[in-house]
Amino acid sequence: RVQLVESGGGSVQIGGSLRLSCKVSSYTFSNRYRMAWFRQIPGTEREGVASIDNDDATWYSDPVNGRFAISQDIAKNTLYLQMNNLKLEDSGMYYCALASLGGLSLLPRSYNYWGQGTQVTVSS
Q: How many CB atoms lie within 10 A of CB 60?
């Protein structure tokens, strides 16, 4: 079955950086797919952060635009999220997601494969 495993989370101070990774297994990347990073704080809805598609097009939510960068290495079946200039409000559980459809989306309902998440904590 398709599995997504996130890594790279941790604790960092305001202004610091982290790089998240998401390893995808048992999935064949075809001509059309999309991947994304979401984050969630307990008691709130899952929030789309960044999306990337099979053409390397990208889309970022307004709160992270200019600070985060999503990328992919299909040869390694891995998705990345470089997070710079981290703020307190960036704390949360970060999930990667995958769908066998083209285009970009920051909506959770647009994805059918999900990882278990990696925790990011930003402190002062």
A: 19
